[in-house]
Specification:
The chain is α/β, with parallel strands linked by helices. It has a single domain, classed as TIM Barrel (Alpha-Beta Barrel). Helix content is 48%, strand content 11%. The chain has an 8-stranded parallel sheet, with helices on one face. Helix 3 runs parallel beside helix 4 and helix 8 runs parallel beside helix 9. The longest helix has 16 residues.
Length: 305
C-alpha cells in the first residue's frame, strides 16, 4: 500500500470547556490555524489529544467533525489506543467508515504485552480494516518496545506502512533502514530528537509542540529537508528547551500551557490530568517566557523558508 505521508504532523490537542466537555468548535479553530501554518497532515486523538480520557462515542464525534474541517487538504489519521485488541479493531473499522485516511496504532493500553502479544495486536488491527497504519513505538511511555527486528514480522502486513519511532534512541532509525530498507515511512516522534532523526533519514515528524509553535516547527523541518543544517541548528537551539517539554510525563499539560501563553488555545485538560500549579507551573512558565523573549522574528522565519 502506497501513501504519501511526510513532513510535520501535529498530534493535535483536544480542547475542553471548563466543565471538561469537548469544545469541538475550539478544536476545529485550532486545527485551522495549524493548516494555515502549512502542516502536512494531522493526527487526531493521539496521546497529546488525550485519547484515553475520551469515551468511545466522543472519539467518533471528534473524528467526524474534524474530518469535515480538513476537507481533504491533508491526510487525517486517528490514534488507536484501546485497552483490548477487540475494541481496537472495532475502532479501526469505525474510523474507516467515517472516512479517516489512516491510523496511528498504539499497543493495547494497561496490559504490558510481550513481543508475541504486541505483534498479534498490531496484526489484528491491520487485518481488521483496510486503512494504512503507522505503528507508534514509545516504550518509555507504554512499556512495550517494538524493536527493529519485530518490524520484520509486521512487514508482511501491506497496510502497515509507517513507524512513529519514539524509543528515545535515534540509532533505531538507522537500524530500521539497514534491516528493512525503504519498506516503512519513518516518523520522528520525540520532539527534541527531531533534527537528529531527520539527518538519519526520518521522512516525517509527529510533534506535540507544533500546537503552540506551528510556524517555527514547519520552518525547522523545511530547513532540515533542504539540507540547510546551520540554519536548522540555530533554530533548533532556540526551540529545544521548549521541545524538552514534550518528553515529560505531563507533556499534555505543558503543551497546552504553551498554547495558552501564545494565544492558540486553552490549557484545560480532562481529569485525571490537572492544571499544573505552584513551583512546577512557575518553572514551566519560565521556560516558555524565556523562549518567547528570544523568539525568532517572523521576517527571519520567512527568509528561512
Amino acid at each position: 500500500m502506497k501513501v504519501n505521508w511526510h513532513g510535520v504532523y501535529p498530534a493535535l490537542t483536544t480542547q475542553f470547556r471548563a466543565d471538561e466537555s469537548i469544545d469541538v468548535a475550539a478544536t476545529a479553530a485550532h486545527l485551522e490555524k495549524m493548516l494555515a501554518a502549512g502542516i502536512h497532515g494531522v493526527i487526531l486523538l493521539g496521546s497529546v489529544g488525550e485519547n484515553t480520557a475520551l469515551d468511545y462515542e466522543e472519539k467518533l464525534t471528534v473524528l467526524r467533525e474534524l474530518r469535515s474541517v480538513v476537507a481533504g487538504r491533508v491526510p487525517v489519521l486517528s490514534g488507536v489506543a484501546e485497552n483490548t485488541t477487540r475494541t481496537a479493531v472495532r475502532y479501526a473499522r469505525d474510523c474507516e467508515r467515517i472516512g479517516i485516511d489512516g491510523l496511528m496504532v498504539l499497543p493495547a493500553m494497561i496490559y504490558k504485552a510481550d513481543a508475541r502479544e504486541a505483534i498479534a495486536h498490531f496484526r489484528a488491527v491491520a487485518q481488521g480494516c483496510g486503512l494504512p497504519i503507522m505503528i507508534y513505538n514509545n516504550p518509555p511511555a507504554y512499556y512495550v518496545d517494538v524493536t527493529p527486528q519485530m518490524f520484520g514480522e509486521l512487514a508482511a502486513e501491506p497496510t502497515i506502512v509507517a513507524i512513529k519511532e519514539s524509543s528515545d534512541n535515534p540509532r533505531r532509525i538507522t537500524d530500521i533502514v539497514n534491516l528493512h530498507g525503504d519498506r516503512f515511512i519513518l516518523f520522528s516522534g520525540v520532539d527534541d530528537l527531531v533534527l537528529e532523526s531527520a539527518m538519519l533519514g526520518a521522512q516525517g515528524w509527529v510533534s506535540g509542540l507544533v500546537n503552540a509553535f506551528p510556524e517555527e516547527n514547519r520552518v525547522l523541518w523545511d530547513l532540515a529537508m533542504a539540507g540547510r543544517w546551520q540554519e536548522a541548528r540555530e533554530l533548533y537551539r532556540w526551540y529545544t528547551p521548549l521541545l524538552h517539554l514534550d518528553t515529560k510525563i505531563k507533556l499534555v499539560q505543558y503543551i497546552k500551557l504553551c498554547m495558552a501563553e501564545v494565544g492558540l488555545g486553552s490549557e484545560k485538560t480532562r481529569a485525571p490530568r490537572l492544571a499544573i500549579e505552584g513551583a512546577e507551573r512557575e518553572e514551566v512558565l519560565a521556560v516558555i517566557r524565556k523562549a518567547l523573549a528570544a523568539r525568532p522574528a517572523p521576517a527571519s522565519l520567512a527568509c528561512a523558508k
